[in-house]
Amino acid sequence: MVLVADAGNTNIKLGLFERERLLASARLMTGAPGGLTRELLSFLHEKKISPGDIGAAAVSAVVPKAGQAFLESARDLRIAPPLVVTSDTKTGIRIKTDVPAELGADRLVNAAAAFHYYGGPVLAVDFGTATTYDVVTEKGELLGGVIAPGVGICAEALWEKTAKLPKVAVEKPGSVLGTNTVSSMKSGIFYGYLGQLEYFIRRLKAELEADFKVVATGGLSRLFEGATTEIDVFDPDLTLKGLNYISMMHRQQTGATISS
Question: How far apart are CA 152 and CA 97, in angstroms?
């Protein structure tokens, strides 16, 4: 089995794979009380998996402290040393940005997974703390993309920076027209973000003169399912699948086998 982890700003998302089949996944809060080792062990016990059953691991981390915590937890549980994905890792695509080392590992993994599973040209959109857009050509070249404030950040700014507006749930309202404060806020958050999303996709297609497939992932991606025709595929496990794919590629290239 292969254990993968995407250590983000808000959550550490775990995935447990057997070959290419995702057996289980979970989200842990970054900096969870009790420590990550305890949370990871609890996850494995819940799935009736022993740490000794895991023969390989991989991690992408935009928060170095969270990534390091996963590495230490893997060591504590005697799991095989995880592959840490960086811009130098072989992923099946080529980075063509100005400064490849600045590229977030999660963006690289998403781009590689989108290209591997859906072909190119493709745009990977990840709805996380930030929303990222990454374009890969039909030749497997990652050109770059967009980093925008996530929908959660936009919502929090609205009620935190105003005196009388309440905190509201981020959800799709029944109509654009709000008839009270709460419904007006929900409309502004949802449809304002939807407009930004659709604009970025159309603008990228126009600038690159490419009609690429759009693949959405991330915790809030399902919020927009059925609300737009600009997104072709919703794949909530894209990042985990990409980490597993990159791990398999790494083992094939190095001749390593899954240890037991």
Answer: 27
CA angle 49, 6, 144 (to 5 degrees): 150
- Told to judge if 232 belongs to the known catalytic residues of this protein, a careful annotator would answer no
Beta-bridge partners for 90 = none
Q: pLDDT by residue (tens digit) across 128-172?
A: 989 999 999 999 999 999 999 999 999 999 999 998 899 999 999
What parts of the chain have a pLDDT lower than 70? 30-34, 255-260
Give the residue numbers of the binding site. 6-13, 104-107, 126, 129, 181
Q: CA torsion sign, 85 to 244 to 81 to 34?
A: positive
Cα 102 from Cα 144, distance rounded (Å) = 11
The CATH number of domain 94-240 is 3.40.50.410:
no
| Residue from 53, 88, 98, 106 carrying the catalytic annotation | 106
Greatest CA separation for the chain:
63
Show binding-site residues for K(+).
126
> Is there a shared CATH topology between the 2-84 domain and the 94-240 domain?
yes
* Domain 2-84 architecture: 2-Layer Sandwich (3.30)
